[in-house]
Structures are given as C-alpha cells and as structure tokens.
Amino acid sequence: MTTAYPTGSIGATLRRLKGTLDAPSSAMTPGPILRPAPANDNQPDFFVPSLCDIALKDGIGLMDIACFRLGSKATQSLIRHDLPGVTVEVAGGVHGMATIHDYDIVLMMISQLTQAMTLWRAGRGPRPPMRLRLHGADILKFCRRGRGGRDYHLIDGALQRLAGTFIRIEARGVAAHRRRTGYFSLISEAEVLSRADNNRIEQVELGIPNWLYSGVMDAQTPEVLTLNPDYLLIKGGLARFVYRLARKAAGDGQADYGFDLVRGRSGSLRRAAAFDADLRALIAANDLPDYALTEIDGASGSVLRMRRRT
To answer: Which residue among 69, 106, 126, 178 is buried most deeply as judged by most CB within 10 Å?
Structure first.
C-alpha cells in the first residue's frame, strides 16, 4: 500500500521519518565515506595525470547512469536505462558484470590517454596508441590501493569482469542522428604479459576501446571531466555513484534529482524504501568530496540536491 504524504516541509519530514524507521541498522549510524589512504599513497615515484572521466557521445555519458554494479554482492547481469530517445543496456559476461570499483582501471586508461594526447597535440610526444602497457604496482598506485596479495588478486578479477561487460545503445528519433549507437566494451582486451612467482600480475597490456579512444583523440575538446583524487578513496558504491552524478549534473553549481530517478540511474536492486534509507544515510554523513548533499521536498516526493561546495 502506498502512503500519500502532504506536500511542503511537513511531507518531507514525514518521508524522512519513515525512511529512518525502514532503514537497516547500518544506515542509521553512517560511518566515514572515505577509506584511509594506503601507506605509500604520498610517495612521488609514479606520476599520473588528474583523474578524468569520459562521456560516450553528445551527453549520453557514463557518469549519470550505472554501466556497472554498485557493489560486489549485487547479482544483476543486465541493467537497462530508458532515457529520452535512448535505451542503454549494460550486460555482464561469464565472470559477472564489472563493479564501480573495477571501473577505476578504466579511469586510469582515460587519464593516461588524455595526458598522452595533450603532449602529442603540443608536439611533445608521439600519437598515443590504442594499447596501454602497465605494471600491476602502477595500477594499485593509481587506484590508491595497498600492495598486498589481496590487492593484486583484485586486479585479476577486475580485468575479467571489465573485458566481459558490454554496453548496447539504441537511439530513436532525433537522437538517432546525433548519438553513437551499437555495442561497446569497457576494455577491448587485457593481455597479461608477465606474472611473478606468486602468480601476481607484473605487467599487463590493455586494449583501449574505440569509443573511449575516439572520445579523447578525435574530439576538438576531449570529452573528459576531472574528478577529485579522493574519489578513489570513497568506499561505498552508492556514494561513488552519487559523486559521479553530481560531478556531471551539478558541475560547479547544483542539480536536483528525485530519489526514484537516482535509484533508477544507479541500477540498484534495493527496495525503494531501503534505497531511500541508504541515500538518507549518505546525506546525513554529507562528506563527499566537493559536493554537499541535502534532501528537499519535490512535487512527486523526496529530491536529492547536489551542490558544489564553496
């Protein structure tokens, strides 16, 4: 049974109260959003450019929709987004769908490609190839992870899931004439070139997919946005998704998204009441990098307001 709430501040208060009552115990006492940085985080032995993210084409981006699972325990193999004039489907492979934490490796590809493209256009380096050779330690350093056995093991699983996750875009009407459509992979391939005696990845070569390469190299202005480096320290999948949504939608200002819309764009399988409780816990913590979060009352229910911090 759906409960009808009055509009205005009273309705917002009642919705927040119900969300608190429906919340799991972990959501009622929010902990820190950022995990501690690894011990070697400040060592200047590996230079990487500012973190960047890339849109697919003409506003159909990967930052305001989930092209991955938010958590490692989620079981979905297909996420479908019905946007105005466009349908986006994300399908996982035999090893499962990539997670939002796996996607850190894609961010590394984008960041390295953007840096190489900038040097090439300035006449200070060759045109970057569509393959990127990396050491396992470099990946962990960029992702702001430790260098224990479990961390190296995560690279193997992430590469398997990223290589098997595909995005299908179908555009209709006017959108069909100005948006790229078809099937796109998160990474085109991953070839392990060498392993240590303990089976850890020493060196791997990643294939940069065409859509990503084209978005950086062929556009007059590369289709990238710079992220706060502390994004990589955000622990929860929902918190990461909300940061990415805020970075694209709010930018240097603010943006409002209804709770239902946030849930749909995130691809979450949580019940609406449980998801709203999770979102309210995130709002209560209010310690995302760069953006302040508040709940406001909207015409059709609760609304998440994301505002750039001054």
So the answer is: 69
